[in-house]
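Quick one, tokens below. Sequence please?
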């Protein structure tokens, strides 16, 4: 019996695409899935809400409240997602116990994350890591590494140094590398009187943080345009971090899709960075009007980013894909599963494009044929290949996703009421 996939395989073969090789390649590309979707970015180490321009809206029932609930939810979500995964941790998710009681962020050690390492090792996950520089009393007027107050800066420098050391120890324990990403919300609500001083202090703080070298840590800094209450100036802009990365080998500029002006095309930035850098880390999210970190969907901006990753020579190995979205208004496991699947789906779609032929047509000025082939590729039977990929990865096809999510929800809600 000829299946829909068999027909799709033949149709793609006619334009030079081997669907079997594509699925094999995709299954090996890890996506680093953020832990903070499961509990609305609250973490385990502080009481109170968020700060620093971060907001999780909604009050959907069933939020994870501790390590056990968060990892159970993550397991449930990733059981619905094909492909290789990593987990992306924030330092605020340290696990405190009677043997390892609470310490402040500048005194965190590897032992506070050993439960995460044991859990990840059992599942074959790598781990990425982030200092948590928000939602804390030491955020002095929403300034941290750029603060004019030396005591404030020193606290956060110690925190970042601790996180880089922890990242190295996690990588050693997993025989891997760990991406360590620094993001700060530092900025001003109204017109600045001194931009230079803020950025000079941030540069000095980073120099201190990165003074010690680690062989298994991939260091990066994440830029932003603005945050709520920080509308007039953000210290860690993309220009700042790009210049810092260009002049500090081993430090990279992380691109978050929501951290740019609405008219900017993040996909277009990848080719520029890949000309000069051997790695480009990403946080994939979906901005709606501003950096709102909506759940990633299979939409045009994500497909274009994926197409660049698939088409640029070497980009498949050089671009490090992490996710960064959080929505407290919907089922959190469903959000995790949908957003991660959308990233996988976009990569599959990109690998199924006749990129080599399109490039050849562009380079030989055959723009009419390039346009027509590009339009043809858009209506190819991609869905049949996606369904086959999901079946081979033992996860539900799209039509079965909601049943799995709602079944898990019915199981855990009584326990978390």
């Amino acid at each position: 019996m000829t299946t829909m996939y068999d027909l799709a395989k033949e149709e793609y073969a006619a334009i030079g695409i081997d669907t079997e090789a594509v699925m094999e390649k995709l299954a090996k590309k890890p996506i680093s899935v953020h832990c903070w979707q499961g509990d609305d970015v609250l973490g385990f180490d502080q009481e109170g809400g968020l700060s620093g321009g971060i907001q999780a809206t909604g009050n959907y029932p069933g939020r994870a409240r501790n390590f056990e609930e968060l990892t159970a939810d993550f397991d449930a979500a990733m059981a619905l997602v094909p492909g290789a995964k990593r987990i992306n941790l924030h330092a605020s998710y340290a696990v405190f116990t009677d043997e390892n009681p609470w310490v402040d962020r500048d005194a965190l050690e590897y032992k506070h994350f050993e439960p995460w390492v044991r859990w990840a090792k059992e599942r074959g996950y790598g781990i990425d890591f982030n200092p948590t520089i928000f939602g804390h009393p030491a955020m002095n007027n929403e300034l941290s590494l750029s603060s004019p107050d030396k005591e404030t800066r020193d606290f956060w420098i110690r925190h970042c140094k601790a996180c880089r050391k922890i990242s190295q120890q996690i990588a050693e324990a997993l025989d891997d590398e760990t991406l360590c990403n620094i993001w700060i919300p530092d900025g001003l609500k109204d017109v600045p009187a001194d931009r230079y001083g803020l950025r000079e202090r941030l540069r000095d703080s980073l120099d201190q943080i990165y003074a010690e070298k680690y062989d298994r840590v991939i260091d990066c800094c994440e830029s932003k345009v603005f945050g709520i209450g920080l509308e007039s100036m953000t210290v860690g802009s993309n220009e700042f971090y790009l210049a810092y990365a260009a002049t500090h080998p081993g430090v990279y500029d992380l691109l978050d899709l929501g951290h740019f002006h609405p008219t900017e095309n993040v996909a277009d930035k990848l080719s520029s960075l890949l000309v000069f850098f051997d790695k480009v880390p990403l946080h994939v999210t979906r901005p709606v009007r501003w950096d709102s970190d909506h759940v990633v969907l299979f939409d045009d901006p994500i497909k274009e980013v994926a197409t660049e990753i698939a088409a640029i020579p070497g980009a498949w190995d050089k671009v490090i894909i992490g996710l960064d979205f959080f929505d407290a208004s919907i089922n959190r496991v469903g959000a995790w599963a949908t957003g991660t699947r959308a990233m996988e789906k976009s990569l599959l779609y990109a690998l199924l494009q006749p990129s080599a032929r399109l490039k050849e047509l562009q380079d030989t000025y055959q723009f009419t044929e390039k346009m027509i082939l590009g339009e043809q590729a858009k209506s190819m039977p991609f869905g049949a290949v996606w369904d086959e990929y999901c079946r081979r990865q033992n996860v539900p096809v799209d039509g079965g996703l909601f049943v799995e999510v709602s079944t898990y929800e019915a199981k855990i809600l009584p326990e978390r009421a």
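The chain is about 45% helix and 15% strand. The CA atoms of residues 81 and 191 lie 45 Å apart.
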